[in-house]
Structures are given as C-alpha cells and as structure tokens.
Amino acid sequence: MKLIRFILAMALLVAGPALAEPAPDELVKKTAEEVLAIVRADQELRAGSPKKVLALVEEKVLPHFDFARMTRLAMGRHWREATPEQQQQIVREFRELLVRTYTAAFTSYRNQTVAYKPFKMEPAANDVTVRTEIVNPDGRPPIPVDYSMYKTSNGWKVYDVTIENVSLVATYRGTFTEEIRRGGIDGLIKSLREKNQSLAQQEQKKG
C-alpha cells in the first residue's frame, strides 16, 4: 500500500516547466492543483489507461524527479562497486520500474485532495522538505507525504518521497541490498529488468 501511496504522491507533482523558477513549496502546490484538475476531467486517466498514463508520466512527472540521484541513494555503498555501465543500467531499470509501477497503480486515485503544511526555508537553502497530506474524501485519516527536494541549475528536483514516515529511497535500499547479497550487481539488474518485463506484459493485457 505504501508504494501505491507513493505513486499517488508522484501523480500530484506533475506539470510542465515554468518560465520563472518557483520556490519548492510553490512548485508542489501549483503542480498538484493543476494535475488534479487534469485527472478529474479525463475519464481515461482515472480509468488507468496504460498508454495515456505512461505518456503523462514521461512528459510531466520525470522532469521533476532526479531518478539518478534516487538510484545512487538507494544503492548506498554498493553504487561505488558498480561499473559505469552497470550504474547506467541500474538507473535506467529503476526509473522504468517506478514509471511502470506508477502506471499500473494509477487507478488508486479516488478524488483525493492535498493539504499543504506551513513551509519556511533559508534564502540560501539548497535542500528542503515540503510537507503535505493527501486528504481522503471518505473520512479516513490523511496520509502525510513529504517531498525531499534539492536545488539544481534546472530548478528544484525531488530525490525522495516519504509517506507515513517511510522513505521510498530507504525502502528500496533494503530491497537492493538483499538483491545484491544474493546475486551481486548483475543480479540486481536482472531482477529489475524482470520486474519491468512483467509490468510491461500486464500493460499489454490491459491494452
């Protein structure tokens, strides 16, 4: 369930690049409200059309996430053990896994809204946390979602998402460590590739 909630959290952070670089909290709020309006108005997106969701993710989500940094953090010390070629493969497969998992789980959206926590940052800050909550329309407790973001030459990028105090990066670090323990770096790459192939097959069945 936590991964599905991460998927929803990603869905609330999609938008095209702005002309002026917004503050991180403004970026989260502006894009969340924009994408919620898009999703509510699009029956195919709400139904989880694989092709349409995948196109949306590729165009809108990826520019706001630094998947290379997420992968390095998830790998931990094992990152330095991988060759440059292996590193590229892992980043590519991990990025694809998150995107395909997102696509498969998009039907979890059920008219949730977003509440934004007070945000303050130092003028020179280059690493911040933007805190939000996903509010369920059925009265269930809100789900805390924190975006870890850092400043780049291309604006603020998300490098981790923490949902109900569980870090996405930390979760995958445990998974990656276990895969590497069992099969080495190549074993991790193989495992990621197989998961992606399985998700791709599921998408094809859904059409």
UniProtKB/TrEMBL annotation:
Pfam families (UniProt xref): MlaC
Gene3D superfamilies associated with the record: 3.10.450.50, phospholipid-binding protein
Keyword Signal: yes
Signal sequence interval, chain numbering: 1-20
Keyword terms of this UniProt record: Signal
Annotated protein name in UniProt: ABC transporter substrate-binding protein
Lineage: Bacteria, Pseudomonadati, Pseudomonadota, Hydrogenophilia, Hydrogenophilia incertae sedis
